[in-house]
Amino acid sequence: MSKVKKENALWWQSAVFYQIYPKSFQDSNHDGIGDINGIISRLPYLHQLGIDAIWLSPIYSSPNVDNGYDIDNYYEILAEFGTMKDVEQLIAEAKTFGIRIVMDLVVNHTSDQHPWFLEAEKGNKKYQDYYIWQKEPPNDLQSFFGGTAWTFNEKQNRYYLHLFSKNQPDLNWENPNMREDIWKMMRFWIGKGIGGFRLDVIDLIGKQPEKEILGDGPNLHTYLQEMYHEALKEKDLVTIGETGSVTPETAPLYTAPERNELSMVFQFQHMALDEQSGHSKWALKKLSVPELKKVLSKWQTALPENAWNSLFWSNHDQPRILSRWGDGNYPLESGKMLAILLHLMRGTPFIYQGEEIGMTNFPIHSAKQIQDIESQNFYQNQQKTGIAKEKIFESINTKGRDNARTPMQWDNTIFGGFSTVSPWYPVNPNHKQINVEANLKNSESLFYTYQKLILLRKKYPIIIWGSYELLDTAPTIFAYKRNYEHETWLVCANFSDQETFYSFSEEPETTVISNYNVTYSSINNLNLRPYETFVVKLKP
């Protein structure tokens, strides 16, 4: 990969993003549900961490069938989160800390309680064409949440498409009137002073369901270019596309600057490495470190210069990375390893709330504890086929989305400092040990590793612009070099709970960071401890 010129840099290329799931971040009004004013109260903490932008999961008016990803009014705020005035205050106060607010925008589908769908049900021809209808299901297309993607609507005597819940009808992007209403809404939010949009499942908007074409439909990029010209052009915004179907080869179609579409995309190929090939995400298998090296490195080297990468381990749809690929026997060492390994790669890093303090999954043992609609559907479908409950819970506790949505752990008090009353979802019992307060008091904590990684990114252009070279090492050693302007850094991680011998021929000039707090004067004949990870600048 050739060198990118710094003078063409955009703010989001050097930024670090922090995702907030508002319902679980901070409750300010003592109702057990996180809210906008709670986020405002924690801006000093986020500033201390050093982040540049907040990706805010949906706060729009919603029946909450899919926790806010089913929007019934794009112009109103869900009452449990606060008011539009609160959001305006959040945007303004975040700016005083140098933090931008990026809105999560769901435009592949709406709620079935959105006025557009309610009007369509009544027979309003204008709004009927805002959705996708068929007299009979043209195929047996399945919803991502399980079951058929075609549901019969008695008022219309027709079937409508929903790739997610039946309460989330898909929008018909072939309709220019519908698209214009989307552009109008986006311009409204841009006028509020936001920093951009994270676009939920945006690769699905070009779908042709009758042909069973979902991601990367033939008109997808036409719609994205229209979005740019109608809402985004000549504005200093970031647009992050959630694109489950993207590959390194197709990523430039979304992100090449001359195409005027998106800033960057989320890819999920590494997130599928602990799933059995050809099965759903619930079919578990152990992570292969060589496979992880191969996938992440391909995204580092095969992505052209004019495309931009996003870097993440966790989000609201993924289990906690420390429980997933870390090690409960070495939580601090493996947590720091995962952080260093990712943040030293080329691309824009995303931290999910609580990741920086080492939050973990919260195992459940009862169907009553399941909140997420995807996990609820999986549980019910598996029970019908006679699968043992223990096996079902193993999958849910490993991969379920509720794992990411437990309340943020601020301190060791009864409700973790999240609320003064019992929260909407129980706080993980380990909050007595794992919390922000404890992290801030311990100079060797995971928090300070994330803080240092953010500071390093701001100080050293090699992290943003350097080329990437995967090194041929032992299977559980993940080592790579970054090169930029006659400078070379070596990143080495022992992705294992076993001591592992390895030797490099180069000589270090300085140690940049290490998770065992070691200074490396030599990297010959190393006996790497479990999860030992270091970054060194090499002598020329």
From TrEMBL:
<dbReference type="InterPro" id="IPR013780">
    <property type="entry name" value="Glyco_hydro_b"/>
</dbReference>
<dbReference type="InterPro" id="IPR017853">
    <property type="entry name" value="GH"/>
</dbReference>
<comment type="similarity">
    <text>Belongs to the glycosyl hydrolase 13 family.</text>
</comment>
<dbReference type="Pfam" id="PF00128">
    <property type="entry name" value="Alpha-amylase"/>
</dbReference>
<feature type="domain" description="Glycosyl hydrolase family 13 catalytic">
    <location>
        <begin position="19"/>
        <end position="405"/>
    </location>
</feature>
<protein>
    <submittedName>
        <fullName>Alpha-glucosidase</fullName>
    </submittedName>
</protein>
<dbReference type="InterPro" id="IPR056300">
    <property type="entry name" value="SusG-like_C"/>
</dbReference>
<dbReference type="InterPro" id="IPR045857">
    <property type="entry name" value="O16G_dom_2"/>
</dbReference>
<keyword id="KW-0378">Hydrolase</keyword>
<keyword id="KW-0326">Glycosidase</keyword>
<dbReference type="Pfam" id="PF23915">
    <property type="entry name" value="SusG_C"/>
</dbReference>
<dbReference type="InterPro" id="IPR006047">
    <property type="entry name" value="GH13_cat_dom"/>
</dbReference>
